[in-house]
Amino acid sequence: MIRGVLLDEYYPGWWPSAILRLHPGLDLRVIGRANAPPTGTKDPLLLQWIEAHDFVVVTEDRKTMPGHLNDHTAAGRHVEGIFIADKRLNIRVVADDLDLVAGASYEGEFRDQITVLPL
What we know:
By secondary structure, the chain is α/β, with parallel strands linked by helices.
């Protein structure tokens, strides 16, 4: 079950408040802020964090994240999902998709997968 969303630190600073304004019930955390991994955390450690917390991660990292996910799953570990979102996407689309993923996806629907937003 997806408990929440971890947003990469490289998105515009206004994204978290805009997402939460549209979907206040979403458990959204941002790398580098309270109750989230610190800024600069390497991808393998981020995958361990989202696995331990049943979160998905939203990132722009199309290049290295697939390899890290492959290593993570090859070690017998799992994540609820990785979502790729371009910074140029409409924030309403991103917020609605994240709310849908967190609130209406069935168990394991995005497990160990990389999904590009919009859905």
